[in-house]
Amino acid sequence: MKFLRSLFGSFSGDLAIDLGTANSLVYQRGKGVVLSAPSYVAIRTTGKTGKVIAVGEVAKEMDGKCPKGIQVIRPMKDGVIADFEIAQAMLRHFIRMVNFWRIFKPRIIVAVPSGITQVEKKAVREAAEQAGASEVYLIEEPMAAAIGAGLPITEPTANMIVDIGGGTTEVAIISLAGIVYSKSVRMGGDKMDEAISQYIRKKYNLWIGTHMAEMIKKEIGTAYPSDQVDSLEVKGRDTVSGLPKVVAIDSEEIRKAITEQVGAILTTVLSALEQIPPELAADIVSKGIVLTGGGALLKRLDKLIAEETHLPISIADDPLKTVAIGSGIALESLGILKEIAIQ
Q: CA-to-CA distance for 65 and 50, rounded, in angstroms?
C-alpha cells in the first residue's frame, strides 16, 4: 500500500486545513487554497434528526432565518471543537468537496491554537480521521501563520507573529523552527461582534443579528481614532415595540464598543514583548511584528499596536489565508512538517 501511495502520490489529494471558529480553509497539495467557507452547519432537528442539510456559506445564510425543525450550528468555539459530531460532518463535507474523485484517503494537516489541550488535540485528530483522513498531523497556528507570511522561521532570529482569528488570538515569537514564546487567548472577532451587538441594543434599543454585527465591524469598525468618521445605517428590531427599525451609527461609536476586546489583544502583545530574551528583543525592534488572521483587517489596528509598542507593524499579504498557506507549505515539505508537527 505504501508503494502504491508513493506511486500514485499525485492522486492522493493530501490536504492542509485551517479549521477556524468563523471560517475554514482547505489547501490541496499542488493546487494551493481550494476552499474557503464559513464554519457553519445546518441540520434537521425533526424527522431524520441530525441530518446535515447545508454546510458553509449556504448554512451561514440560513442562520437566524430557519423554520422550526432546522438548526444552524457553529461546531467550532474559541478555535477548538465544541460539537464533535457536527465538526466531523463539516470536515467530511469539505474533504469530499475537494477530494471527490481521489483514490486514496488524504493525509491531512490541521492547524490548531497553541494553547490547545491534550483532550482538544485528540478531538481534532479523531474528527479528521473519522471524516476520512488516512493520517493526521497537527501544527500550531502561529507557526503556520509565520510560514504563510514568509518569515524566515528556520534562522536564528526572532520572528513575532500575531494571528487574530474569530475565536482566538495567537501571539508567538519563533526562532530556529521553534516557538520561543506563545500565548493563546480566547479573544477574537466573534467577541467584537458580540460587543457591537450589545452596545447597539443598550444604546438604541435595537436588536441585531450576529451577521449584522459582523458587517458593521467590517464596514466601519476601527481600533484607533481617525479624523474621518464613517457612518452606517443599521437595521434591526426595536426591543420595546418589536417593530423593524433603522438607526445611524458611526465608526467612533464602534471603536468605543470594542475597546475592551481590542485592549485584550494589545495586552497579550505587550505581555509577550516583556517575556522575551534581550537578544530576541533586538531582532524584533528591527524587524517588527506581523499581523495575520481576519482580525488583522480591522481598520487602524496596526496603527494602535505601533503606537503602544513603538515597533514597526506590518499586515500579511493575505491575512485570511495565511495559516492555510503556511500549513500547505508544510504539507508540501516533509522536512518542515517533521520539524514543526506537534504530538
A: 18
- Domain range for residue 171? 155-187+262-315
> Would you state the pLDDT for residue 114?
87
Per DSSP, the three-state class of 101 is coil
pLDDT digits (tens, 9 = 90+) for 281-308: 999 999 999 999 999 999 999 999 999 9
- For the ranges 4-8, 155-159, 233-237, the lowest mean pLDDT is seen at 4-8
CA-based nearest residue to 173, from 337, 297, 305, 284: 284
pLDDT in tens, 307-339: 999 999 999 999 999 999 999 999 998 788 888
Do 277 and 183 belong together in one domain? yes
82-132 pLDDT, tens digit per residue, is 999 999 999 999 988 887 656 678 899 999 998 888 999 999 999 999 988
CATH of the domain at 203: 3.90.640.10
* pTM for the whole structure: 0.91
Q: Tell whether 45 is covered by a domain.
A: no
The answer to whether residue 67 sits within a structural domain is no
Cβ atoms of 222 and 299 closer than 8 Å: yes
